[in-house]
Amino acid sequence: MTLRTRRRWLVASSLLLCTLLTATSAAATPLPDDDDDDDEFDAVVWISDVEVNEDEGSATFTVFKTGRTKTQVSVDVYTVDGTATANTDYIETSATVTLPRRRNATKTFVVPIVDDAIDEQKETFFAVLSNPVGVAIRKEAGVATIRDNDRAGVVVDVGDGLYVLEGDQPDTFSIRLQSAPAAPVTVAVVTDDAQLSLSPATITVDAKNWTQAHEVVVTAVEDGLDEDDPHFAEIDVELQSADSNYDRMELKPIPVTIGDADALLVSIIGPHAGAPQQTATFEAVVNAGERATSPTTGRPSMPETQWPTAPSRHSSSLRRIPDRT
User: Fold this and answer.
1) CA 143 to chain centre
2) 1 or 223, which is more confident?
3) Beta carbons within 10 angstroms of residue 175's beta carbon
4) Which of the residues 4, 8, 148, 154 has the least number of beta carbons within 10 Å of its own beta carbon?
5) C-alpha span between 235 and 225 (Å, rounded)
6) What percent of the chain lies above the pLDDT cut of 90?
7) pLDDT in tens, 301-318
8) Where in the chain is the domain with CATH 2.60.40.10?
9) β-strand partners of 80
10) Cβ–Cβ < 8 Å for 259, 165
11) Domain with CATH 2.60.40.2030 in the chain
12) Pick the CATH number of 36-147 from 2.60.40.2030, 3.40.50.720, 2.60.40.1230, 2.30.30.240
């Protein structure tokens, strides 16, 4: 073998050896794990928003994680007031949420909701992420919106209707709120009719007694006047409060029927058989109760008297007034 040929063979052998060593080294080196391909802080977490009705019991946030990590990660979550108040509208809550190392993972964060009886606007609070371990925060806070389920209103119960008899027979009605007021409500019952007396004239309703039915007694004063029987009046209910839902709330007037209980003078004219025509004056004495009615006409019965056409709820009798002339 010539010297030139020997040199060529040595170069080729060296190249072959280098190739074999490179291949062996590559085969012996494992491929990188997919989980190690990303730096752990390439993974992020964020938290959802949520909207609930007040009577649903709780608000559930979702904490999301995307991106693989070498180990499981964690993040703290806690609540912060918005327009809602902790432990009044919702229960103050905090927790540490742990998420696995896989690329996509979720965990929930549950906050109890207080179902109060106050008529309110929508209210909000926040769930805030902090203190991340092994992960970065992309969206720090989730918003919870609470939809109210209460409506302000007043229930006035008059039963079958209010009927009072002058100086004798009172009647009652009751007033109750439909929701707890945010501030005390002063309820005033008033009337333009001087013949009516109302007791009590004012009632104070607050968050402690709003479920109670507050009774008002209606009495008609004996005025000594011969009036239509029955005649009518109205009672107004007026509200004042620092709670704008109840302040100056407009309510319909309450109608009252008043029975007249005053004496009437009635003339009964003869003639009678065997006697000359004459005129006698009687006093109609009005008493509480039901008037007797004629079995033939169905109208209140009293011999030879003219009764008013309006219905009445009291009975009468006649007593002759002696002629003193």
Assistant:
1) 23
2) 223
3) 21
4) 4
5) 21
6) 57
7) 333 333 343 344 444 444
8) 154-259
9) 126
10) yes
11) 36-147
12) 2.60.40.2030
Q: Nearest 5°: phi and psi at 108?
A: -105, 155
CB 115 within 8 A of CB 123: no
CATH architecture observed for domain 154-259: Sandwich (2.60)
- Retrieve residue 172's tokens: 């009652």
Q: What is the pTM of this model?
A: 0.56
Instruction: Give the tokens for residue 212.
Output: 């109670």
pLDDT greater than 80 at residue 34: no
Give residue-wise pLDDT tens across range 144-164: 999 998 889 999 999 999 999
Three-class HEC string of the chain: CCHHHHHHHHHHHHHHHHHHHHHHHHHHCCCCCHHHCCCHHHCEEEECCEEEEHHHCEEEEEEEEECCCCCCEEEEEEEEECCCCECCCECCCEEEEEECCCCEEEEEEEEEECCCCECCCCEEEEEEEEEEECCEEEECEEEEEEECCCCCCEEEECCCCEEEECCCECEEEEEEECCECCCCEEEEEECCCCCEEEECCEEEECCCCCCCCEEEEEEECCCCCCCCCCEEEEEEEEEEECCCCCCCCCCCCEEEEEECCCCEEEEEECCCCCCCCCEEEEEEEEEECCCCECCCCCCECCCCCCCCCCCCCEEEEEEECCCCC
